Amino acid sequence: MAAALIRFRVDLGPELAIGPGKIELLEQVGTSGSLSQAARALGMSYRRAWQLLDSLNAALLEPVTEARKGGSHGGGSQLTEFGREVIRIYRAFDGETQRRAERVFRPIRARARHGRRRAAAAPVLRLSER
């Protein structure tokens, strides 16, 4: 039986939204050390990945990533300490939200038909997503 799942975006101002896509991108940059590799891993264009990171860096007082200059090993991107903190805070809140959703929606989920296709696709419960 699948668990209840909430995907959300947190709007912190008119120019700043943080959601699952940006967090996954930051995590991939942290893992790969490269924006282009992170974009490939997530199936998005380099341009889109760059725009997402640029929007975060422009809207925050501290950058979440820093570019490394090229050289014999090439350039890359790395998370800043603040970038790791953004991921940690988002993931902690996400974990709390998922646990609460599972607990709150358990009575409904227990009465759901499992393994059958629905005639019409039901909307996914979302607080907000970009």
How would you sum up this structure, described in words?
- There is one protein chain.
- With 130 residues, the protein is mainly alpha-helical.
- The protein has a domain at 17-103: Orthogonal Bundle (Arc Repressor Mutant, subunit A), CATH 1.10.10.
- The protein is built from 4 helices and 4 strands; from the N terminus they run ββαααββα.
- The protein has helices spanning 20-32, 35-42, 46-59, 81-109; strands at 10-13, 16-18, 65-68, 76-79.
- Strands 1-2 form a two-stranded antiparallel ribbon. The chain has a two-stranded antiparallel sheet with strand order 3-4.
- The relative contact order is 0.22.
- The model is unreliable at 120-126 (pLDDT under 50).
Which structural category fits the helices and strands? mainly alpha
Question: Briefly, what CATH class of the domain at 17-103?
Answer: Mainly Alpha
Largest sheet: 2 strands, antiparallel
Backbone CA Rg:
18 Å
Low-confidence stretches: 120-126
- What's the name of the CATH homologous superfamily of the domain at 17-103? Winged helix-like DNA-binding domain superfamily/Winged helix DNA-binding domain
For the termini, the CA-CA separation is 28 Å
Q: In percent terms, what proportion of residues is strand? A: 5-15%
Which geometry do the CA atoms define? elongated
Query: How large is the count of helical segments?
Result: 4
What's the overall average pLDDT, rounded?
86
Largest beta sheet: strand ordering: 1-2
The arrangement of helices and strands along the chain is EEHHHEEH
CATH topology of the domain at 17-103: Arc Repressor Mutant, subunit A
Q: Would you count the extended β strands for me?
A: 4
The CATH architecture category of the domain at 17-103 equals: Orthogonal Bundle
Helix content: 40-55%
